[in-house]
């Protein structure tokens, strides 16, 4: 089976998974504790207002009509109105989601770049002081609670040294640019981004480092590494072009899963740094019974997980010629 | 003309309880274009000997003494950089036991051949690729297959591709470590033939490492029999096959089928390879040797020359008729109490991982 057929089939699979996911979401939200209508009804409504509201929301329709309507809305990006903000959900959620992507994306990129390099060198210099020290550092990073890392960084860099701001995404009163670049590319924003992203990076660092190291140890035992050394190739070439290149394969899958999970935002980091991201928004939405907002948040996060897995599969095929497209 | 001259080489491995003498006082010299077989059981030190030549030893191994003179260059004294630039692959290449694992799975075979050619020579990628295709053709592989990944090759095909890689820079010496054991017999023979042809064409010398007497008898000019880290017998191939003097060689010969003799009975040598951690004096084969005498346990035999480059390390090598006759009988090799009469056998050897 050719590559093209494989990709086509994988896309089909993606669509089916997607459909299953959003149907599940529909069912879940209609199974929420209590009468679904009660969530939408404010206290002190007259029975007539109540009826009218239910009709407005389409909840008096048969289930399949509701389902079709639900599908239509999701596909057009219409998530309804937030009960709390009284604004369209889409406007609220997209901004939060971008904030999270920028924060977590930065953290992940740093964590995986450093982790992969660091892990590869640790495996290469097996039994060296570098490796032993590296393991200790990694394990410390891994077992430190997120909030603790955040608070330590805050105390040192924000309160003590005063190098970075302590909270939020931008200095109050600062101009809020319109475009994406103006919004996320400004020096002010980057200064705000630094500490929370670093916290995330430290928290995420352990997985790629340790995984990379252990795969390296396996790969270095392979016959071809000995041949590459015998070929007289420089150590750097053997390490990066051959050993690390082979060891990176399992990381791809792990990275996809981690990215999917990270896009839900981190409630802890967002709280410590007062970052307006998905994590906190979602907790708020659930606590306040903001049904449309919570639904949209779940939908977005689930979609990211599904898409990341899809990307991981394709990347894997690209990176490992041995994958059979069965 | 001598290409490689190894003198009194000692390559030891560090172990918890001392040095493992994987190669102990070995001298061997090889001429240009010559093929020498290193025969012995696994753990005999034959691979360690070969890997010492291109210094591809594990971290816990060390050449403690001796010299390796390769074409006028003392290999043991080269810096890593000199070793990589002057010796590795351009002068000495190797063919591993399992070719499939000898290639990096994520690059095509062609890419890997091109990589080594362009690193060592001032050649364009296109020219290097052309050379890879020509080599494939010479080896009886479709040249278009240079663009295939290693896993797309069959075992025999991969082995041919590996030979192409090994010969890509026309090295003066090829170290072949059991190059055909992973393959079935018919393919084995054909590949050995191909190796021979190309090797003669390039006038490359070769060291063929194997535990299989029949492989060396077909391909080698000379054969060195390795036991317990030492070359116990060395001679031209015919002498080793027809007229060996060392009991271990006689035993090895029994253990492999002779093509000319149909009803030959295969007899294996009882016992296991010796513990090489700081061994005592005496012949290392004595615990398994049916001919061991008192002297064998006390005095390490020195190489004795029997003319025409035939050297043997055995106290009883003079009694050749008797040894050869007895060694052909199965009773001789049954596991018996071979230990020294008055002394209890030393505790069983500790398992030490040798790189064979
Ligand atoms: S020296 Fe003695 S023990 Fe060693 S091989 Fe010869 S006869 Fe056997």
How does this model look, in words?
Chain B: Residues 1-253 form the ABC transporter domain. The complex is a heterodimer of chains A (326) and B (356). Chain A is mostly helical. Helices cover 75% and strands 0% of the residues of chain A. Chain A has 2 domains: 3-75, no CATH class; 97-319, MetI-like (MetI-like fold). Chain A has helices spanning 3-30, 36-40, 47-57, 63-75, 89-124, 129-143, 146-160, 180-185, 187-220, 223-230, 235-247, 249-262, 267-272, 278-287, 291-319. In chain A, helix 5 packs antiparallel against helix 6. Chain A starts with a helix and ends in a 7-residue tail after the last helix. Chain B is α/β, with parallel strands linked by helices. Helix content of chain B is 31%, strand content 22%. Chain B contains 12 helices and 12 strands. Chain B has helices spanning 46-53, 80-87, 99-102, 109-120, 125-138, 155-167, 185-202, 213-219, 237-242, 247-254, 294-298, 320-327; strands at 2-15, 18-31, 35-39, 61-70, 73-74, 92-95, 173-177, 205-210, 222-227, 230-236, 304-305, 311-312. In chain B, strand 1 and strand 2 form a beta hairpin. In chain B, helix 4 packs across helix 5 and helix 6 (155-167) packs parallel to helix 7. Chain B is globular. Mean pLDDT of chain B is 87; it is low at 341-347. Chain A binds chain B through residues 127, 222-224, 226-234, 237, 242, 245-246, 319-322, and chain B through 54, 56, 59, 83-85, 87-90, 93-94, 96-98, 101-106, 108, 115-116, 119-120, 149, 151, 165. The site of iron/sulfur cluster has 12 residues of chain B, from loops.
Keywords:
heterodimer; A: 326 residues; mainly alpha; MetI-like fold; 2 domains; 15 helices; 75% helix; 0% strand; B: 356 residues; alpha/beta; eight-stranded mixed beta sheet; four-stranded antiparallel beta sheet; 12 helices; globular; binds iron/sulfur cluster
Short description:
Chain A: InterPro entries: BPD_transp_1_N, MetI-like, MetI-like_sf. The complex is a heterodimer of chains A (326) and B (356). Chain A is built from 15 helices and no strands.
């Amino acid at each position: 089976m050719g590559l093209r057929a494989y990709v086509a089939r994988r896309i089909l699979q993606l669509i089916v998974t997607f459909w299953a996911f959003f149907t599940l979401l529909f069912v879940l939200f209609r199974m929420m504790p209590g009468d679904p209508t009660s969530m939408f009804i404010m206290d002190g409504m007259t029975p007539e207002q109540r009826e009218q509201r239910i009709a407005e929301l389409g909840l008096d329709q048969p289930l399949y009509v509701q389902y079709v309507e639900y599908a239509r809305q999701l596909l057009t990006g219409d998530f309804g109105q937030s009960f709390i903000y009284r604004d369209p959900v889409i406007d609220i959620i997209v901004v939060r989601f971008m904030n999270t992507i920028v924060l977590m994306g930065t953290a992940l990129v740093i964590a995986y770049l450093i982790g992969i390099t660091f892990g590869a060198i640790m495996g290469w210099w097996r039994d060296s002081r570098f490796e032993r020290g590296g393991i200790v550092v990694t394990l410390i990073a891994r077992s430190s609670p997120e909030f603790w890392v955040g608070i330590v960084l805050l105390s040192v860099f924000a309160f003590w040294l005063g190098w970075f701001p302590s909270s939020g995404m931008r200095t109050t009163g600062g101009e809020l640019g319109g475009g994406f670049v103006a919004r996320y590319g400004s020096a002010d924003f980057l200064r705000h981004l630094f500490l929370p992203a670093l916290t995330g990076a430290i928290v995420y660092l352990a997985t790629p480092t340790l995984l990379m190291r252990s795969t390296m140890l396996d790969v270095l035992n392979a016959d071809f590494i000995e041949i590459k050394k015998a070929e007289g190739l420089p150590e750097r070439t053997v390490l990066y072009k051959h050993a690390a290149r082979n060891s990176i394969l399992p990381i791809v899958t792990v990275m996809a899963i981690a990215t999917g999970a990270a896009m839900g935002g981190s409630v802890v980091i967002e709280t410590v740094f007062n970052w307006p991201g998905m994590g906190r928004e979602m907790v708020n939405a659930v606590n306040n019974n903001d049904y449309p907002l919570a639904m949209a948040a779940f939908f977005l996060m689930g979609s990211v997980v599904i898409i990341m897995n899809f990307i991981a599969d394709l990347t894997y095929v690209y990176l490992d010629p041995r994958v059979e497209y069965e | 003309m001598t290409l490689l001259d190894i003198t009194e080489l000692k390559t030891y491995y560090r172990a918890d309880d001392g040095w493992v003498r994987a190669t102990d006082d070995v001298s061997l010299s090889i001429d240009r274009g010559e093929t020498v077989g290193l025969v012995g059981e696994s753990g005999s030190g034959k691979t360690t000997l070969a890997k010492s030549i291109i210094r591809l030893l594990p971290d816990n191994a060390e050449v403690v003494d001796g010299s390796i003179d390769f074409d006028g260059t003392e290999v043991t004294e080269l810096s890593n950089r000199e070793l990589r630039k002057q010796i590795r692959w351009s002068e000495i290449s190797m063919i591993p036991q399992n070719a499939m694992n000898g290639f990096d799975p994520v690059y095509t075979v062609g890419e890997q051949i091109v990589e080594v050619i362009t690193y060592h020579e001032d050649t364009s990628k296109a020219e290097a690729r052309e050379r890879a295709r020509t080599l494939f053709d010479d080896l009886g592989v479709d040249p278009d297959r240079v663009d295939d990944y290693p896993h797309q090759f069959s075992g025999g095909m991969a082995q041919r591709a590996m030979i192409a890689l090994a010969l890509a820079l026309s090295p003066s010496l090829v170290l072949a470590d059991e190059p055909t054991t992973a393959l079935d017999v018919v393919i084995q023979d054909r590949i050995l033939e191909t190796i021979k042809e190309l090797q003669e064409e390039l006038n490359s010398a070769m060291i063929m490492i194997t535990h299989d007497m029949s492989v060396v008898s077909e391909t080698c000019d000379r054969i060195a029999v390795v036991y317990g880290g030492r070359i116990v017998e060395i001679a031209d191939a015919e002498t080793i096959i027809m007229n060996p003097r060392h009991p271990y060689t006689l035993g090895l010969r029994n253990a492999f089928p002779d093509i000319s003799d149909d009803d030959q009975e295969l007899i294996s040598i009882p016992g296991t390879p010796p513990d090489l951690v700081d061994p005592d004096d005496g012949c290392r084969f004595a615990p398994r040797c049916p001919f061991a005498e008192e002297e064998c346990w006390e005095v390490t035999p020195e190489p004795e020359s029997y003319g025409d480059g035939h050297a043997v390390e055995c106290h009883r090598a003079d009694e050749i008729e008797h040894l050869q006759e007895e060694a052909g009988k199965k009773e001789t090799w049954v596991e018996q109490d071979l230990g020294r009469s008055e002394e209890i056998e030393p505790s069983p050897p500790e398992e030490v991982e040798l790189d064979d």
